[in-house]
């Protein structure tokens, strides 16, 4: 009886426990059903995620273009190679999916990638983890990354088991070291995106940045779409194109001249910029040292010196001192003054001309021609007065940033407290300005007194339609001087180049008149706090405009501490002229600016190129030779099918004209050709060209005489003339 009571009691306890458990479980199920959550996880969202596939659709970053639509930066596909070394990956399949014969694989890969057979084999044998377990794959370091499509195709043609590729977009700059401080560069970030780091790539990141698309759809356990997959497609959005005011041909003229002078004189620094003074458009800009944005080799400074590096302008400042005196009505060009030295106060040391003995009594007009420090000092101190001159200095915007659409702009420093500092400013010593500040002020002289804001961005374009989304118009900042003042200053600047006593005779051009002002600025020695001295220890510069009467182009060039010889004596202006003269003259010809000199150079433009498409090859070649150009025949046909440059183009004498005469064309030998000529051939033959190095063609991946297949890649290696071995073909006399 007692046992039954105990049993009944235990049964009741168990029933109570089961009842409580049932209530708890039922309550839990009811809660889950009512709320749809477990431990804060939404079950509907979890299930949706489990049965939904999500794929990314790649978009492209916008291109950077020159003013004529030539591509200066774009996304370029490359391939990273790896080898699957895990034998288990080939189980239950007919075809081997891992590397089977390592020796043969290493031998064949060594013919394509920049890695020795031994190094490749060592990497393939490195197939175990530290704990002894099998690795799934191995990679080949930098030699296996960023491979071209041509390299990938060659490897795939070998049909090597286990060798795989992963596609990756990189930012590519087809012209290498070309306006690199303007364009800048972009690189892959840690999230797989390409991001601007410097220059326009950084400045216009918001416009250039792409937005990847996505595809979402629901699937079953077998990864098959459901009957009602509820697909959602977000279309990719390519970045917008940014078109610059740069002209690829004028920039090429500049780059070639900069490289030549850099190699010849080994200066500490070169800065140069070409502008249209009527619009403020920057047509070309370059610095040395520079770098190739594809690999950033040679990068020494991330700053664009033209906008970021203040300098003492030296005698180029005399343009604005004279302009101020003329505009204020206190200038008489025929008035005489005693040159040599000028004692403006009893306490301060006198100002001296670069010829300390002077030239006796000369006129103020002649003083500008001779670049007299005494002339500008007397104009500032006696005619204008320091306060009035400061008003003009500020009106020329020389104390403020120009507002150019480039990152990192700085402004110079005005030192103008004491009489010695005020007088020194008249001839560009003591205070500093950036080259772009000088150029902006110079537009007022070249453009009838109207000062234009410099800019490098022309427009932002929709990448699909090519239509402008945003355009930049020329902007008149102010008018610091009258049009009549501008005309008088231009006359004085022309005398600097053509006058009997002019300091700028070296800057004469064959076909165009030039107005300009030379500058030889002293360089402070950071160790002593004093100015350096000695042959070559100066910043030599020239601010010039042409044609002198109505300037179409304006250019500033400075060369700092070039290595000059005393025997034979080389003037400091020589390296500056070796940049200014060819760039200015070739650019004016290219822009079809009519010569304003009666004298005609032996390098005049040939007549406009006729349309030879459809004409016989013999007749076309004969006519091209007669015009002074050089015909290059591509193909063995009897009639011209295509031609570059286009009909109607003005070309320089000895410039190449390419004539395609048949569908099947053998690759010409381009050794010694300029990069521009190589690109023109690639364009005409439908090839995709990649280049390395700078200078002239040294090697080409498609050998001369082989058929050039449309759409294929050609790799061109460029070298400077001094890098050519003695037996190789030297560079030709190119016209770029």
Automatic annotation (TrEMBL):
Protein localization: Membrane
Any Gene Ontology biological process: peptidoglycan biosynthetic process
Region (Disordered): 459-478
Domain PASTA: 661-720
Residue ranges crossing the lipid bilayer per the database entry: 12-31
Pfam name, any one: Transpeptidase
Reactions the enzyme catalyzes: Preferential cleavage: (Ac)2-L-Lys-D-Ala-|-D-Ala. Also transpeptidation of peptidyl-alanyl moieties that are N-acyl substituents of D-alanine
Coiled-coil portions: none
Record-linked InterPro entries: Beta-lactam/transpept, Beta-lactam/transpept-like, PASTA_dom, PBP_dimer, PBP_dimer_sf, PCN-bd_Tpept
Pathway info: Cell wall biogenesis; peptidoglycan biosynthesis
The keyword RNA-binding is annotated on this UniProt entry: no
Protein name as it appears in the record: serine-type D-Ala-D-Ala carboxypeptidase
Originating species: Pontibacillus litoralis JSM 072002
Organism classification: Bacteria, Bacillati, Bacillota, Bacilli, Bacillales
């Amino acid at each position: 009886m007692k046992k039954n009571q105990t049993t009944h009691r235990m049964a009741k306890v168990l029933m109570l426990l089961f009842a409580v458990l049932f209530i708890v479980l039922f309550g839990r199920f009811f809660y889950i059903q009512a709320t749809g959550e477990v431990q804060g996880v939404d079950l509907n969202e979890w299930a949706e995620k489990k049965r939904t596939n999500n794929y990314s659709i790649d978009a492209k970053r916008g291109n950077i273009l020159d003013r004529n639509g030539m591509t200066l930066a774009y996304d370029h596909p490359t391939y990273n190679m790896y080898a699957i070394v895990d034998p288990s990956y080939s189980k239950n399949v007919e075809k081997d999916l891992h590397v089977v014969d390592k020796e043969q694989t290493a031998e064949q890969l060594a013919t394509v990638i920049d890695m020795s057979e031994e190094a490749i084999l060592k990497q393939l044998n490195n197939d175990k983890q530290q704990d002894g377990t099998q690795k799934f794959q191995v990679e080949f370091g930098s030699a296996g990354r960023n491979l071209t499509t041509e390299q990938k195709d060659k490897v795939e043609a070998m049909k090597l088991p286990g060798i795989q590729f992963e596609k990756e977009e990189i930012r590519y700059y087809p012209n290498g070291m070309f306006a690199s401080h303007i364009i800048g560069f972009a690189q892959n970030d840690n999230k797989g995106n390409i991001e601007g780091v410097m220059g326009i790539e950084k400045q216009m990141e918001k416009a250039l940045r792409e937005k990847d698309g996505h595809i979402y759809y629901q699937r079953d356990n077998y990864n098959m779409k459901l009957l009602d997959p509820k697909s959602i497609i977000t279309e990719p959005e390519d970045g917008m194109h940014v078109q610059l005011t740069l002209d690829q041909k004028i920039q090429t003229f500049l780059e070639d001249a900069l490289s030549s002078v850099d190699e010849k004189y080994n200066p500490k620094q070169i800065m140069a910029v070409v502008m249209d003074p009527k619009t403020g458009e920057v047509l070309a800009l370059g610095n040395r040292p520079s770098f190739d944005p594809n690999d950033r080799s040679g990068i020494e400074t991330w700053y664009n010196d033209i906008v970021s590096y203040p300098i003492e302008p030296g005698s180029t400042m005399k343009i604005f001192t004279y302009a101020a005196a003329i505009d204020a009505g206190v200038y008489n060009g025929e008035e005489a003054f005693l040159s040599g030295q000028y004692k403006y106060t009893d306490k301060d040391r006198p100002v001296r001309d670069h010829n300390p003995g002077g030239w006796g009594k000369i006129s103020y007009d002649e003083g500008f021609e001779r670049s007299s420090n005494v002339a500008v000092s007397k104009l500032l101190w006696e005619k204008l007065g320091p306060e009035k001159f400061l008003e003009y200095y500020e009106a020329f915007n020389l104390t403020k940033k120009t507002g150019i659409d480039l990152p990192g702009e700085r402004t110079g420093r005005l030192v103008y407290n004491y009489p010695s500092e005020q007088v020194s400013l008249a001839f560009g010593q003591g205070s500093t300005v950036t080259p772009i500040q000088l150029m902006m002020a110079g537009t007022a002289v070249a453009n009838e007194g109207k000062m234009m804001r410099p800019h490098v961005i022309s427009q932002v374009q929709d990448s699909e339609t090519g239509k402008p989304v945003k355009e930049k118009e020329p902007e008149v900042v102010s008018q610091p001087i009258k049009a009549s003042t501008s005309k008088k200053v231009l006359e004085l600047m022309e005398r600097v180049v053509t006058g009997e006593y002019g300091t700028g005779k070296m800057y004469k051009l064959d076909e165009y008149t030039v107005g300009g002002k030379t500058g030889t600025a002293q360089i402070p020695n950071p160790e002593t706090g004093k100015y350096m001295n000695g042959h070559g220890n100066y910043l030599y510069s020239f601010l010039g405009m042409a044609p002198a009467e109505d300037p179409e182009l304006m250019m500033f060039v400075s060369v700092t501490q070039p290595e000059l010889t005393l025997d034979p004596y080389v003037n400091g202006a020589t390296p500056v002229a070796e940049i200014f003269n060819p760039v200015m003259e070739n650019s004016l010809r290219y822009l079809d600016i009519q010569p304003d000199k009666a004298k005609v150079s032996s390098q005049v433009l040939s007549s406009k190129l006729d349309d030879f498409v459809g004409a016989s090859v013999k007749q076309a070649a004969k006519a091209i030779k007669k015009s002074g150009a050089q015909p290059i025949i591509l193909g063995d046909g009897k009639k011209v099918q295509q031609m570059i440059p286009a009909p109607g183009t003005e070309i320089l004498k000895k410039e190449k004209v390419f004539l395609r005469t048949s569908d099947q064309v053998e690759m010409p030998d381009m050794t010694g050709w300029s990069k521009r000529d190589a690109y023109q051939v690639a364009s005409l033959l439908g090839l995709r060209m990649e280049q390395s190095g700078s200078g002239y063609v040294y090697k080409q991946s498609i050998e001369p005489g082989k058929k050039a297949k449309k759409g294929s890649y050609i790799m061109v290696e460029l070298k400077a003339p001094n890098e050519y071995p003695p037996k190789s073909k030297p560079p030709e006399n190119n016209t770029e």
